[in-house]
Specification:
Strand content: 15-25%
Largest sheet: 6 strands, mixed
Shape: globular
Number of strands: 21
Strand order of the largest sheet: 1-5-4-2-3-6
Helix content: 25-40%
Distance between the termini: 35 Å
Radius of gyration: 22 Å
CATH class of the largest domain: Alpha Beta
Length: 490
């Protein structure tokens, strides 16, 4: 059964992720595009962007990362779309997901299909679909795609071979990197970054950003040293997720070479990781607050702020200090993207390393986030931890933690969640529970202002545990209680 999660569909290679299933999804997307009046080629919003004339045929961007079989799966998907009367712009190389999203917007395409499993381990691959506005597909779109897949059953999917598709111009090789790089540069203070002459280490994590780093660094006058910038379908034996535990080598390089910053992006470059000049990894929640304060105080920008429910309240505190309104969403950048596409929001972010800003795609972009961190370093001329310390003095301290806790099966996860629903705790770590938010899992907000979040991941077989407090000792108490509630054996 093919079902989309918080950010696309993912499955184990050869078991779930097969050419057969990729073809089914591509055919379902083609049917959705042609039949659905709200999200397809006949959408009024889409026709308005095209100047009132419906393209004949509709066009879709197709990209892929460096995972095992990703290029081949992209070719299969392109052939299916072409066979269904949809013209395809097919990436010439591995490409970040936000680059596909940007071209969908800039070229007024019907949508973008990306072959990737993002930050998941090497044994996974998957498919992301972005409608014509360049954001992640909402539930009503993915539900429609799932329905078309279910209706297809075991019927063979029609596919147009690569050679005839190219000869007839149904598939066109396309460079998505060039326009994307220009877009990123337009969102940065290039002059300030060049003037700072930064020294930065960049960990591509064997991901799709590896082709983008050098031209960006050159354009920004950055002295860049890169790590893991080759294709490796095993990702060096670690998941391509830019978390603190996966960036030890980057941290060592930053310290040993006395660099200003360490930057990293995940497998499809939509998530970011930041390492400060002393080698310490910075939680994405903190980076979101730093970027928001920088854009308002240094760049004079304004607008609303959107964050996911499990993201630090530090973002709210910074927004409040600058007179900005904050909106909370369920987990998943697709929800944040719905706000971002209105044009009223300056920044959207989530604790898992997702960020976008006004004037860009309503989709998370790890490279943009990393470069904005570099811009902060260029402006401030001091370590990010010093900038953060000054911000804490103004809005108060925030300490947070995020853990992934594996479970054995769906039944176990359902039992734990039902137990929390039927018998919720009235006290956690010695503080009374003030409010329980069940928007996405459980968020226990305590009377002392700290909180604990528990939910089932939408991208893997594990629970997510989130905690935030005003000091480290209180934080650890919340984490211990969270593990107890999840029945984790310690």
């Amino acid at each position: 059964m093919i079902r989309f999660g918080t950010s696309g569909w993912r499955g184990l290679i050869s078991e779930d992720f097969t050419f057969t299933n990729v073809r089914k999804i591509a055919a379902a997307i083609a049917a959705h595009v042609k039949e659905n009046p709200d999200f397809g080629a006949s959408s009024p919003d889409y026709l308005l962007k095209r100047g009132g004339a419906s393209p004949n045929p509709p066009e879709v961007a197709v990209g892929f990362d460096g995972r095992f079989l990703s290029p081949e799966a992209a070719q299969e998907a392109a052939g299916v779309l072409a066979a269904q009367g949809i013209r395809v712009l097919l990436s010439e190389t591995e490409i970040p997901t936000p680059a596909i999203a940007y071209s969908v917007m800039a070229k007024h395409l019907v949508g973008g299909l990306m072959i990737t499993a993002s930050h998941n381990p090497a044994r996974y691959n998957g498919v992301k679909w972005m409608p014509f506005w360049g954001g992640q597909a909402p539930q009503e779109v993915t539900g429609e795609i799932e329905r078309h897949v279910d209706l297809s059953g075991e019927h063979a999917v029609k596919i147009l071979g690569a050679d005839p598709a190219l000869r007839r111009s149904w598939i066109e090789p396309f460079d998505f990197a060039g326009p994307y790089i220009k877009q990123l540069l337009s969102l940065l203070d290039v002059k300030a970054i060049k003037k700072a002459r930064l020294k930065i280490a960049f960990d591509a994590m064997h991901g799709a950003a590896r082709f983008i780093i050098a031209p960006l660094a050159s354009s920004l006058g950055i002295e860049a040293v890169t790590l893991h910038d080759t294709r490796d379908v095993l990702f060096g034996g670690r998941p391509p997720e830019p978390s603190g535990g996966n960036l030890a080598e980057l941290s060592d390089m930053v310290v040993s070479r006395r660099m200003d910053l360490g930057l990293a992006t995940d497998g499809d470059a939509d998530r970011f990781g930041i390492v400060d000049s002393d080698g310490h990894w910075m939680a994405p929640d903190l980076v979101l607050g730093l970027v928001l304060d920088h854009l308002t105080a240094r760049r004079g920008l304004s607008g609303k702020v959107a964050r996911s429910i499990m993201t630090s309240h530090f973002v709210d505190a910074v927004a409040k200090s600058r007179g900005l309104e904050t909106r909370e969403t369920p987990v998943g950048f697709k929800h944040i993207g719905e706000f971002m596409r209105t044009g009223q929001y300056l920044l959207g972010g989530e604790e898992s390393g997702g960020l976008s800003i006004a004037g860009h795609v309503p989709n998370k972009d790890g490279l943009l986030a990393a470069l904005l961190a570099a811009e902060i370093a260029a402006y401030e001329r001091k370590p990010l931890k010093a900038v953060l310390a000054a911000l804490f003095k103004r809005v108060g301290p925030f300490h947070q933690k995020r853990l992934s806790v594996p479970f054995d099966g769906l039944r176990e996860s359902e039992e734990v969640m039902e137990s929390l629903r039927s018998k919720p705790p009235l006290e956690i770590a010695g503080a009374a529970v003030w409010r329980i938010d069940e928007t996405d899992g459980f968020k226990f907000i305590l009377k002392d202002g700290s909180w604990l979040g528990l939910r089932v991941s939408g991208t893997g077989a594990y629970f997510r545990l989130y905690a935030e407090a005003q000091d480290q000792r209180r934080l650890e108490s919340l984490v211990r209680c969270g593990k107890d509630l999840l029945k984790v054996k310690r």
